[in-house]
Amino acid sequence: MSRVLIVEDEPLLAENIREKLESVGLEAHVVHNCSDALTQNARLSPEVIILDIRLPDGDGLEILPKLKAESASTNVIITTAHGNERVAVDAMKAGAFDYVTKPIRLDELSLLVGRAVNERRISDNLSFLRTREESESGLDRIIGESKAIQAIKKSIRRLAQTDALRLSNPPTVLITGETGTGKDLAARAIHYHGPRRDKPFIHVNCTALPESLFESELFGHLRGAFTSAAIAKRGLFEVAEGGTLFLDEIGHLQPDMQAKLLHAIENREIRPVGGTDTRSINVHIIAATNRDLLRAVEENEFRRDLYHRLRVFEVKLPPLRERIDDLPMLADHFLSLHARRFGVAPKVLADDALAMMTMHGWPGNVRELSHLIENCLLQLEEPVVEADNIPLVVDRRNREMRIEGPDGSVVFLDFDGHCPSLEEIERSILLAAYQHTGRNMTGAARLLGITREAFRYRMKRNAEKAL
Hints:
This protein is of the alpha/beta class. Helix content is 45%, strand content 16%. The strands form seven sheets. A five-stranded parallel beta sheet has the order 2-1-3-6-7, with helices on both faces. Strand 13 and strand 14 form a beta hairpin. Helix 1 packs across helix 5, helix 16 crosses helix 17 and helix 16 packs across helix 18. The longest helix has 30 residues. The protein is elongated, with a radius of gyration of 32 Å.
């Protein structure tokens, strides 16, 4: 039940207000002075306060900031004598929700209190959702400790902390990666770690925007701009004002849409459909795609100027198969996350299950792994997930062994296909080092970490076997 605190020094009026509010299902409390108002406000945390300006021990306007300081979302309705509206307007500028003049019409006051209660609830809900979204959008949501992920986190942190994102024309960001690699998480991490975190984050799926509605959705429209435009509508650029507009799957925009988007980004202005005047915009543009945009540019399917305009700062997300060392940590994360979500007992992966999963190519990347874990949790009653419990088909014919060197270099070996022998690999490495150093045997030996004599011996032995 919503609580209302009535601060009124006229006992009869205060009691009438209390009875009226209780008759519509509100919990009402009455105090008659400033001191009791501060005390009861701290104790009750009311959604609404009805505050008289003239009180026996002070002025209601003087305690208004103190009441709001206790809870900024509490709505305060000022009551004032007829003819003193100027004071009430000043109170609203100081943070009051609205005002009523005496003599008070109880039905009108009841409606006003109801509106104040509803707006408080909406404000609280928005605050809760924003807090939850922010807590679920940090860098710690990008799971992994591989070198690639550490580099991405460092890059995002550096970008988010720069003052460049505070500018009215901040640098655009292009996030690339296969489907399911976490482009949405990266975009949210940039927003919620940056200076625009308190402003909106608007996610736009470009593949869901038909060309006929593109301008209306992004730029807005005026009433009567087209047949179904019964009312004016703000575009998403304006909704995101001061915050971030995330254009997901931008690689699939049609050419005409690309041109209009480029104009908006370049000139930092939009023009609603049906309008003649332009409107300035202050948003941070983050775009993402799973498409090879450079190839699309070369094939005349994506504008070159838009590509370079978006790619001021690029974040490349690696596929899961290229950071397979992160798989155990990701699997544990999803096991815990989805167990809480479904209200089921937590489970662990057996060694054979984990080994099987590391052999998979993961074309759907992290998203595929998440869905696989969901399936296991819903289907399995046992506390341990065995390899036989995983609905995963590993194509051993295309299995590649991934070998990561100490410098981060990666070599893939296909043992089930045509894999060179150890001697062939050694010969290739020796010749590559020899050619790289300009046929300098000493330099090649040093490059491979062996002595000149050992290098010469191995070269001679491989040459003899090749004959």
